[in-house]
Fold each of these.
Amino acid sequence: MQQFAGSEEKWQEWLSKANLSDVSVYVDTPTDLQAKQLLLTAAKLSHLSLNQFLRNFGMFVAPRLISQFSHYIDKTWDVLDFLEHTEEYIHKEVRNQIRGANPPTLRVSRLDKDNVMIRYSSSLKMCHFAEGLVESAATFYKQKVLITQPKCMLNGNAECEILVTRV
Ligand code: HEM
């Protein structure tokens, strides 16, 4: 998120306006409350809705995550294979390797060759971040996808269903 801020000045502004300047965000894993505070503040200072900010953040971060974890990504995968295997190959490794990191458990089903369903739930309710990740991953793989959410926590459902269709 510090990289996404784009400058040290803006990052420090986000932290201070979110009342997090005194918190060691570099050492300790932020609590969900702190993370929400920071995201809401950064969205407001960027003059964006939280959903749009999260989508932009997901789009920014996807190619960086893909190159950082390229060892765990099979070179023969296309974007839907990548999404299908994110939980078992990537989020699992993130939990093992990065102290304090706790990515959400995704339940992914490959419905058919052109459709993947990603079921997601988290108290952070960051499905728009997930949508940004998917959109940007598709661009990375030079493929086009349609993303819909038949169910969404933001509409009162217990989990989000993110349906990704190759078009
Ligand atoms: C190379 C691929 C990926 C890597 C390396 C990765 C890694 C991570 C990491 C490090 C976090 C932060 C966790 C924390 O600090 O506690 C995270 C969070 C998250 N990831 Fe992934 N991720 C990847 C792909 C995906 C994909 C494809 C999705 C869904 C479509 C996804 C959904 C999420 C969401 C929604 C969060 C936010 C935290 C929350 O909602 O609780 N990730 N991921």
Amino acid sequence: MDTDLIIIGGGISGASLLYTVSKFTDVDDVTLIEKEREVAAVNSHHTNNSQTLHFGDIETNYTLEKADEVKEGAELLAGYLEAVDPDREMHSKRNKMVLAVGEEEVAELEARYHDEGFGELFPKLEPIGREEIAELEPKVVEGRDPDTELLALRTPDGYVVDYGMVAGSFVDDAREEDGVSVHLGTTVTNVDETDDGFRVETDDGDFAAEAVAVAAGSHSLQFAQEMGYGEDKSLLPVAGSFFLADDLLNGKVYTLQMKKLPFAAVHGDADVHDGSVTRFGPTAKVVPTLERGRVSTVTDFADVFGFTPASFASYANVLSDRILFPYVVRNLVYDVPEVGKRAFLPNVQKVVPTVEASDIDRASGYGGVRPQIVDTDAKALDMGEAKITGDGILFNITPSPGASTCLKNAIADTHTLLGFLDGDHSFDEAAFRDATIGTFPRLSDDTAAGAADADGETAAEGETAAEGETAAEGETVAEDGTAADDTDDDAVVPGARD
Ligand SMILES: Cc1cc2nc3c(=O)[nH]c(=O)nc-3n(C[C@H](O)[C@H](O)[C@H](O)COP(=O)(O)OP(=O)(O)OC[C@H]3O[C@@H](n4cnc5c(N)ncnc54)[C@H](O)[C@@H]3O)c2cc1C
């Protein structure tokens, strides 16, 4: 046997699993196989997702139950970032809020906070009115009818994350351990069950392993179905694009979810690495590919679509929904040059009313494809992530918020995988928690509560945030958002969010 465990896919899911198994279990040999020449080149790349660490606090498309599930996942990753990235190279921390506009939305947001349990679940969440919103995000209030009611729920946990860099960090951490091997630029072409495990065939030779974890994004379902698993599922690939503008927001501003719409409402975010760039999106366009802009993945889509009466009936049922259908059609228009940005403009104006079409441009080359799961038995869209557990093998299909919950998924997968392996292996979950959620700032911690200032970024330990950005350890942020006692301006990114 070449190795105990093979992980297929080096996005944030595969990388976080590699980190967890190699650092916190006594499994001897772990191999990661990734088809691209670098890790996290697909959905986990920073240009391809919204860079938000989803806690469930400002995502009004989540139920309380879902928020409760997602929260721990986000705290695990936030703790890891606090521990390993004090200089904020992989992440920044900014204001994050969900904005209600008008009487009806304000009443809805108030009920969510006071009556539906969100205020209790998220003690750092704080209702703020027009004046405080204007202090934090002047452009959100500028040009808005003064008679329109405004309310926002604001939190200092506005982590903006380059999930690609985090995946790289997980892999680097793992490589410090013996028995870890990483094969980049190596495509898995087939997985077969053998008498004592699996044969994983690649374009660079075969590997044998006792257990396999498939973390290949949309392709995970394709691998599963080729092995006879997940036959009751199909995929609706939903591409998300973004529009860019200059410096409109200091942090993240989400809008209230339109009822019954499965995809998150458009939000505005400053970029993790360049706070002067504000992103709006993502859009939601149904596409027949598993990866953005890769025509070669049309046949992969055909595989997971299945062409069965059940999959046709499921698609028809999902897409004929009277809320979803017009939304899907509208989203097709957003990618049309020139016309698209005019059609998209009202979404941006909901966040920043004074924006004009000339202020925004489609972010060329940005965006990914969310593998939304279709339950072909129920003939309905299942908005969550999916985990298929087979005999000695598991498959993860990870639409949003799969990046936020990567470490929580890794805990569950590690337990499952140890159960697949011969011998008495153990997982030091206490040490794993110390290295991750153990350093997540709580409300009692001054830094955590640490209000982001007017520029939307909050300060890291030992710093004073002057202009809305939180500063990294040992630094002071000056009014212009640069580090006052350090010449390395990169340590502080002004005004970003996802
Ligand atoms: C527009 C958009 C916005 C999003 N915003 C957010 C957000 O703000 N916050 C959040 O938490 N989540 C967000 N998500 C979701 C998030 O991006 C994904 O959940 C996450 O990146 C999934 O990570 P992954 O590692 O499972 O998949 P991926 O990052 O897609 O990685 C899968 C890897 O498997 C590799 N692979 C595939 N096939 C093979 C093969 N045959 N052999 C070897 N390797 C293979 C691929 O090359 C790839 O590197 C967003 C997604 C989109 C599309």
